[in-house]
Structure to design on (361 residues):
């Protein structure tokens, strides 16, 4: 292998660079897979994921969505490229070609990067390649949108609308107002609130005292079963203190039931399906706009309640406390997706620096 340049040092660098490019293809190559295209690899990868999904019985929308993103954005650009010819630079260029001139589609490009990393990790684990070129792709410049939280006015209007709907005939069987309040009281996911069980809740006999809930179950969706009682997201279990108003809600509900099993059950004794709650909220908001003239949203995203509560905890106790309450894998997840920070808020630690003023006199 040879290379020429203006100086000896430049020639050495040129030879090393050529060898680096060739060696990456050498260690990537695997016997029998020289003609494997990225499309072929994608077929193997997604077939594997869909089979795992079938065996586990999960019915999440993430996998079909990622498959569509590959078909819509990666396949037209690099689908026919040989796997052994895929370099970090080439894959990076393909991702940046997804981004529009106005900066839109950045989030799609970021998700496609994750798809490529997963595909080549699969290839490496099955000895299709010995090197994962996608691992070194720089993170696409994606910024999570500013988290939306409920304002005090929005909370007041939503609660008024939900209770107004429940108080109107006919008798309602969906306790939408209590479910909404419990999402705010715990900052739990809606699946975790619906999975709360009386056996995991401590309610004090004394008034104006906090309670405790052990969150260890969640109502999740699985193939053929829309409201299956399973583990929380990432199997994260947690014990949370309950504010007094949540204790009062639970005491009222416990007095009207056997006090066993799930806190929120339908007439058949089964967990509520989330879709039923969303439909109930839509009917409640429609009625509130007509009869009360309230400014309420068209639908009720329960996750906004979670963001609202975690933001409040972060403001009072700090970001680490909010991350613990939310059951996140890292503080970065909480800060990036859940906490709405006031960037103009005054940072006040002046009392700690006051002592330095004593020497200025």
């Amino acid at each position: 292998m040879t290379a020429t340049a203006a100086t000896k040092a430049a020639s050495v660098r040129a030879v090393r660079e050529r060898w680096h490019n060739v060696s990456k293809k050498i260690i990537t190559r695997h016997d029998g897979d020289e003609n494997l295209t990225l499309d072929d690899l994608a077929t193997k990868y997604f077939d594997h994921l869909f089979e795992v999904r079938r065996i586990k019985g999960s019915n999440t929308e993430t996998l079909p969505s990622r498959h569509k993103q590959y078909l819509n954005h990666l396949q037209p650009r690099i689908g026919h490229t040989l796997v052994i010819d895929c370099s970090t630079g080439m894959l990076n260029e393909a991702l940046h070609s997804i981004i529009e001139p106005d900066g839109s589609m950045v989030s799609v490009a970021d998700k496609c990067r994750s798809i490529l990393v997963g595909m080549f990790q699969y290839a490496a684990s099955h000895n299709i390649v010995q090197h994962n070129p996608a691992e070194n792709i720089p993170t696409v410049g994606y910024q999570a949108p500013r988290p939306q939280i409920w304002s005090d006015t929005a909370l007041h209007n939503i609660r008024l609308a939900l209770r107004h709907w429940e108080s109107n005939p006919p008798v309602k069987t969906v306790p939408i107002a209590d479910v909404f309040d419990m999402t705010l009281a715990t900052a739990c996911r809606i699946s975790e609130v619906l999975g709360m069980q009386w056996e995991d809740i401590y309610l004090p006999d004394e008034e104006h005292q906090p309670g405790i809930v052990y969150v260890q179950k969640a109502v999740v969706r699985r193939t053929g079963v829309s409201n299956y009682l399973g583990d929380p997201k990432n199997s994260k279990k947690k014990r949370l203190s309950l504010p007094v108003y949540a204790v009062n809600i639970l005491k009222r509900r416990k007095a009207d039931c056997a006090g066993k099993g799930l806190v929120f059950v339908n007439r058949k004794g089964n967990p509520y399906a989330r879709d039923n709650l969303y439909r109930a909220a839509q009917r409640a908001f429609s009625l509130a706009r007509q009869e009360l003239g309230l400014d309420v949203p068209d639908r009720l995203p329960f996750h906004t309640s979670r963001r609202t509560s975690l933001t409040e905890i972060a403001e009072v106790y700090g970001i680490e406390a909010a991350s613990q309450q939310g059951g996140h894998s890292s503080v970065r997840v909480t800060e990036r997706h859940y906490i709405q920070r006031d960037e103009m808020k005054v940072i006040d630690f002046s009392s700690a620096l006051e002592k330095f003023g004593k020497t200025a006199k």
